[in-house]
Design a protein that fits this description.
GO terms for molecular function: FAD binding; monooxygenase activity. It comes from Sphingobium jiangsuense. It is a single chain. The chain has 372 residues and is an alpha/beta fold. The chain has a single domain, classed as FAD/NAD(P)-binding domain, CATH 3.50.50. The chain is built from eleven helices and 19 strands. Strands 6-5-14-15-16-13-17 form a seven-stranded mixed sheet, sandwiched between helices. The longest helix is centred in the last third of the chain and has 31 residues. The radius of gyration is 20 Å and the shape is globular. The structure holds flavin-adenine dinucleotide.
């Protein structure tokens, strides 16, 4: 096999756009197809840490992401009344840039899409693959817009419900973990400098994270037996009910959860593939390869780290060796995040078996501060 010179990325989300930017910067010809013709993302916020900033900095957009979000000092564990039990201060991985950051998903999307446009990377919206034929020395792809293409490598970055994964590993399907997450953006106290997590309530936890100088978002992760579906008009009442019994800033903020249309509820699902995440010349990255629950706030960072490492390896070696080297650098790290996230959820649902969530979170944060 020789080095990959032209690559198709399926999925224009966090990992797919990061991969396209990284590959373009390595001199590889790259194009993206994105199924959603409107290229929309959820309006909620995401929590990210130093390894996210470091990975985006490699792509030349660390600074832009920091400006688009709100930097804070780190994570704190609190009791039900908001009394601080433990501080986990963030440690920067890039001189001059902060570590922990809250930003809205649309703000991250804007940073990534602006860079893609600036680099002139072709993105076809409302288009996906119809068939993928791996010929050994290239991959032939036909698309839903009637066109065809031939590539040295195809990257499946099409998220948790990946069609590329279904093609490569049909037995791997996301599994409901037993919990759901509720999210809502609210006005924030002026002096908020931490993301706080209130623990100790039966079957779940809740907290908030600053997003902008004006706003923060509240999240609540609770056991949801039977994976229920909620009527849209009930979502604010359901979320507020789960926030009953909390004091401190969280108890105050819960009163702002009033508009059911602004509640984002998601059942938590996970699908962590064993190694390798590729077959022949088709490789999966991000949630398509290792979707986990949000307990460590690492989904976006893992997808971007995948993208950065894959671009580096593709530039350095021929396709087969690059994919092997990619797995060597990525598998254990992504698995650690995925299994630890699921473990934290299990402890919340089964307190009688619980270990120490603060210790585990601290340990993983420190492990991820190490370079990839
Ligand atoms: C509500 C919510 C809150 C979250 N909060 C956090 C957080 O706080 N911190 C954090 O780090 N992570 C968070 N995550 C997880 C994080 O968003 C994901 O881990 C991350 O986006 C994974 O990137 P990805 O590129 O693999 O998938 P995505 O970003 O989901 O991108 C997949 C893209 O592929 C497209 N697509 C799907 N199927 C096809 C197809 N067949 N063909 C072409 N395109 C296709 C989709 O439209 C999408 O644009 C959250 C996720 C959700 C849903």
């Amino acid at each position: 096999m020789s080095k990959a010179r032209n690559i198709l990325v399926i999925g224009g989300g966090v990992g797919g756009l990061a991969a396209a930017i990284g590959l373009h910067q390595q001199g590889v010809e790259v194009e993206v197809v994105e199924r959603d013709k409107d290229w929309k993302v959820y309006h909620v916020g995401i929590i990210v840490q130093a390894n996210f900033v470091r990975a985006l900095n490699v792509l030349g957009i660390g600074d832009a992401a920091v400006k688009a979000g709100y930097a804070y000092r780190g994570a704190r564990f609190c009791d039900l009344d908001g009394r601080v039990l433990k501080e986990l201060p963030g440690e920067t991985a890039v001189d001059g840039l902060p570590s922990d950051l809250g930003l809205t998903r649309p703000a991250l999307h804007k940073v990534l899409t602006e860079k893609v446009r600036e680099l002139g990377i072709p993105v076809r919206l409302g288009v996906t693959f119809e068939s993928i034929e791996d010929r050994g020395d290239r991959v032939d792809v036909s698309f839903t817009d009637g066109t065809k293409g031939s590539y040295d490598l195809v990257i499946g970055a099409d998220g948790n419900y990946s069609a590329a994964r279904k093609l490569l590993f049909p037995d791997a399907v996301p599994r409901y973990t037993g919990q759901g997450v509720w999210r809502y953006n609210v006005p924030r106290p002026q002096d908020l400098e931490w993301s706080d997590l209130y623990i100790g309530k039966d079957k779940g936890k809740a907290g908030y994270c600053p997003l902008t100088p004006e706003d923060m978002y509240i999240f609540a992760v609770f056991e949801e037996p039977g994976n229920p579906r909620f009527a849209p008009e009930t979502l604010a009442d359901e979320m507020r009910r789960r926030l009953e019994g909390y004091g401190g800033i969280l108890g105050e903020a819960a009163r702002h959860v009033t508009d059911p249309a602004l509640v984002v509820y998601r059942p938590l699902e996970a699908c962590i593939l064993p190694s390798p995440w590729y077959r022949g010349r088709v490789v999966l990255i991000g949630d398509a390869a290792h979707s986990a629950t949000p307990h460590l706030g690492q989904g976006a960072a893992m997808a971007i780290e995948d993208a950065v490492v894959l671009a580096e390896e593709i530039a350095a070696r021929d396709v087969e060796d690059a994919l092997d080297a990619f797995m060597q650098r990525r598998f254990e790290r992504a698995k650690l995040v995925g299994t630890s996230s699921i473990q934290l959820g299990e402890w919340e649902m089964h307190p009688e078996t619980a270990g120490d969530p603060i210790e585990l979170t601290d340990r993983i944060r420190k492990a991820l501060a190490e370079p990839v």
